[in-house]
Amino acid sequence: MEAEAAVDYLVDERSKAQFDIDAMKIIWAGGKHEFEVSDRMARLVASDPVFRKDNRAILDRKELFKNTLRKAAHAWKRIIELRLSEQEASKLRFFVDEPAYTDLHWGMFIPVIKGQGTEEQRKKWLPMAYRMQIIGCYAQTELGHGSNVQGLETTATFDPELDEFVIHSPTLTSSKWWPGGLGRASTHAVVFARLITDGKDHGINGFIVQLRSLDDHLPLPGIIIGDIGMKFGNGAYNTMDNGFLRFDHVRIPRDQMLMRVKQVTREGKVVQSDVPWQLLYGTMVYVRQTIVADASCALSRAVCIATRYSAVRRQFGSQNGHETQVIDYRTQQSRLFPLLASAYAFRFVGEWLKWLYMDVTQRLQARDFSTLPEAHACTAGLKSLTTSVTADAIEECRKLCGGHGYLCSSGLPELFAVYVPACTYEGDNIVLLLQVARFLMKTVSQLGSGERPVGTTTYLLRLEHLLQCPCDVQGAEDWLKPDVVVQLFEARSARMTVACAKSLSKFSKPEDGFMDLSADLVSVATAHCQLIVVSKFVEKLQQDIPGEGVKQQLEALCSIYALSLLKKHLGDFLSTSCITSKQASLANDVLRSLYSQVRPNAIALVDAFNYTDHFLGSVLGRYDGNVYPKLYEEALKDPLNESVVPDGYHEYLQPVLKQRLRTARL
Ligand SMILES: CCCCCCCC/C=C\CCCCCCCCCCCCC/C=C/C(=O)SCCNC(=O)CCNC(=O)[C@H](O)C(C)(C)COP(=O)(O)OP(=O)(O)OC[C@H]1O[C@@H](n2cnc3c(N)ncnc32)[C@H](O)[C@@H]1OP(=O)(O)O
Ligand SMILES: Cc1cc2nc3c(=O)[nH]c(=O)nc-3n(C[C@H](O)[C@H](O)[C@H](O)COP(=O)(O)OP(=O)(O)OC[C@H]3O[C@@H](n4cnc5c(N)ncnc54)[C@H](O)[C@@H]3O)c2cc1C
Q1: Where is FAD bound in this sequence (predicted)?
Q2: Which of 144, 158, 223 is nearest to 189 (CA)?
Q3: Which one of the ligands is nearest to 138 CA?
Q4: What is the pLDDT of residues 98-132, one digit of tens each?
Q5: Ligand 1, closest atom to CA 431?
Q6: Would residue 426 show up in a list of annotated catalytic residues for this protein?
C-alpha cells in the first residue's frame, strides 16, 4: 500500500467555520473547568495501552470479561495513584468506554444506600463501598417482573426470635435476573424483596445482602448465582456480567434492611416514616437523570462520525472537478442536521435536568416533598424521549455512512449494540411515558380545584389561551422567533392533553380508560417532553453565550431542532389546528435555509464535542478524515486475514471444489 501522508483531509472544511470553536467546546462541556477535566481525562485514557478497545468485537466472552476486570482494576489503580476527584474519575470511566460492574457499584449500589439507608447504615456501609472493599449491585428485576416493581416475588420475612430476615426465592419467576455486576463480580447486593412480618405483606423494600465470600469469592450458603449469558452484539454490553440470583432461606441481620422509608422494630412492628414511600424508587430517578446526560454523548458521537465521513465521502456529480461530497446532498442534510441539533438540545436539557435533580434532593433533605412528582415525570419522560431518539439516530448515522457504516471499524455497530438497552433498562420507555401521561392527566384534572401546576407544567395555567390561540406566523422569518415556537409547542401539548383527558372522562373506571387510550397517552407524553426540550434550548440561548458566532450557530440548531420536530409530527400540529398547511410549508422552507446556514459549520460543530480518535473508535469518524487507507489497515488486522488460505480449506472447501470439477467433467 502507498505510504500514508500526514494530511488533514478536513482542513478546508474546518477553515469554513464561522464561529469560535474553542468557545463552543466550553459550552458543550458545561464550563471551562469541565472542559479542562474532560480533555485531560480523554488524553490520559487514549495514551494508556491497557485501555485499548479496538479488539473487543473479536474477543470471546471469557477473554472479554477478564479484560474488563483488568481495565477496571487498572482504572482504580490510576484513580488512587493520581488522587483523582469524583468528577475526574467519572470522566475517566466515560472515556474508558466499557460497561463494567463498577457502573452498578458506583452508579446504583452506593446511591441506593445513600438514598434509602439511615444515617447509621450509611456510616457502616459507604466507607467500605467507597474503598471498593465490597462490590455491590442493584438487584431489583426478576425473571417474572421488571416494569411492575410492586409485583416482585422475592420475600424478606422477619424472624423476631433471631432478629433476622429470611430472604427467599419462592418461585422460578422470583429469581433475580438482569442486575449488572451480579453475575461474576459483586460481593454484595441491594435486593428488593417483599417485606413480611407476622404473616403480613408490607410491600417492597431494599435489603443489603452479602452474596459471595470476601476471602475466596465463593457464593455464600443458600445463594445460587451466575451470569445470564450473551447479549446483543459482539463486545458491546457483553463486558458486563448481568446475573441471576436465587435465595434459599438466606438469613441477614435486621439492620440490613434499608430503613429510611420503613422501619422494622426489634419486636417486628413496621413503622412508616414521614417521607413519601416513592423514595423507594429514588435511585431510579437519579439514574434516569444521568441517562439523559449520557444520551447527548452517545448521539453526538454517532453524529460526529457520520458528519465527518459525509464530508469525506464523494459520490456522483461534480464540484470544481471533484465528485459531490455527500454532505452537500439536501437529503443527507435533512437526515443528519436534525440529529446534530438534537445532540446539542439533549446536552442542554441534560444540564437542566441535573439542576432539577439537585434541587429536588436539597428540598427532600429539608423535608419539602412537593416537587418529587414533577422530578419523577421529567426524569422518566426525558429518559424515554432522549434514549429512543438516540437509539434510532445511531442506526440512522450508520445508514448515512452507507456500506462502510456496517463495518465494525466504523464504530457504529458496537455503539448501537451498547446503547439500545438504554431504551429498556431503568424503565421501559413506553412504561415511563405512561407515567408522564398519568402525571399530566392528574395535573389537568386538578386545575379546577385550585391546585397550581408547577415547573414544566406551568404553561397549563394558560390553558384557555392555549386551546384557541392561532399560530403567530405570517412570513417564513416568524418561524425563527423563539416565543412563537415555544407557544406553538405549548399549544400542541395542551390541546392533546385536554383531548385525552376528555376521552378518559367518558370511562366509568379510569383504569379502563388508561388501558384503552394508552397509545394516545404516549403521544401526549411525548408532546409534553418535546416541549420541555425545546423550551430548555430556548432558555439556554437567553443566557450569556460568549464567543464570536457561537450564539448564532446555537440559534440555528435550536430552530432546526424545533422545526424538524414540527415536520416529523405534522399530523399532531395540523389535527389540533395549531398551524395551517401554509404555515407548515413555510416552516419547511425555513428548515432548508437553516441547513444551508449550518453546512459550512458542520465539521466545526462536531469538532466542538472534542472527542479523541481513541474514544470515537471509528475509522470513518477520524479527525483527519484519512478514511480509505485506514479502512484497509483495519481489514488486514482481521483474524481471517492472518493466513492467505483460510483454516478449513482442506477439510471443507477443497473437497467441494474438487467435486465440482468432477461434475463438470461428466
Ligand atoms: C472498565 C472501566 C471501569 C472504570 C472504573 C472506574 C471507577 C469508577 C469511578 C467512578 C465512576 C462513576 C460511574 C458511574 C456510572 C453510572 C452509570 C449508571 C449506569 C446505569 C446502568 C443501568 C443499568 C440498569 C439498571 C436497571 O435497570 S435497575 C431496574 C430499573 N427498573 C425500573 O426502572 C422499573 C420501572 N418501573 C417503575 O419504575 C415502577 O414500577 C412504575 C412503572 C413507576 C410503576 O410503579 P407502581 O408503584 O406500580 O405504579 P403507579 O401506581 O403508577 O405509581 C404510584 C405513584 O408513585 C409515583 N411514582 C412512580 N415512580 C416514581 C418515582 N421513581 N419517583 C417518584 N414517584 C414515583 C407515581 O407517579 C404514582 O404517583 P401518584 O399516585 O401520585 O399518581
Ligand atoms: C442491559 C440491561 C441491564 C439491566 N440492568 C439491571 C440492573 O442492574 N438491575 C436491575 O434490577 N434490573 C436491570 N435490568 C432490567 C431492566 O430494568 C428491565 O428489563 C426493565 O425495567 C424492563 O422491564 P421488563 O424486562 O420487565 O419489561 P416488560 O415490562 O416485560 O416489557 C415487555 C413489553 O411490555 C410492555 N409493557 C409492560 N408493561 C406495560 C404497561 N403497563 N403498559 C403498556 N405496555 C407495557 C413494554 O413496553 C414492553 O414492550 C437491566 C436490563 C437490561 C436490558
Answers
A1: 141, 180
A2: 223
A3: 2
A4: 999 999 999 999 999 999 999 999 999 999 999 99
A5: 42
A6: yes
Task: Please give the domain boundaries of the chain with CATH numbers for all domains.
Answer: 29-98 (1.10.540.10), 134-273 (2.40.110.10), 282-451+479-607 (1.20.140.10)
Ligand 1 close to Cβ of residue 189 (< 6 A): no
C-alpha cell at 31: 464550563
- Measured between alpha carbons, how far is 621 from 312 in angstroms, rounded to an integer? 10
Q: How far apart are CA 93 and CA 30, in angstroms?
A: 18
ipTM above 0.90, yes or no: yes
Whether residue 531 is predicted with pLDDT greater than 90 in this model: the reply is yes
pTM here? 0.97
Asked whether the CA dihedral 386, 388, 393, 394 is positive or negative, the reply is: positive
**How close is the Cα of 150 to the center of ligand 1, in Å?**
13
What are 153's three cell numbers? 416475588
Closest ligand, as measured to the CA of 514:
2
Per-residue pLDDT tens for 277-321? 999 999 999 999 999 999 999 999 999 999 999 999 999 987 778
Which of 426, 434, 511 has most ligand 1 atoms within 8 Å of its beta carbon, as the pocket-test mutant? 426
- HEC profile of 570-604: HHHHHHCCCCCHHHHHHHHHHHHHHHHHHHHHHHH
Pairing between β-strand 270-272 and β-strand 262-264 as defined by DSSP bridges: antiparallel
CA 488 to chain centre: 28
Task: Give how far Cα 109 sits from Cα of 28, 130, 182, 478, Å.
Answer: 30, 11, 11, 50
Ligand 1 centroid–CA 95 distance in Å is: 25
Q: Which of 105, 141, 418 to mutate to test the pocket of ligand 2 (most atoms within 8 A of CB)?
A: 141
Nearest to 556 by CA among 344, 393, 328: 344
Check residue 57 and give its pLDDT.
84
Q: H or E segment at 156?
A: strand 155-159
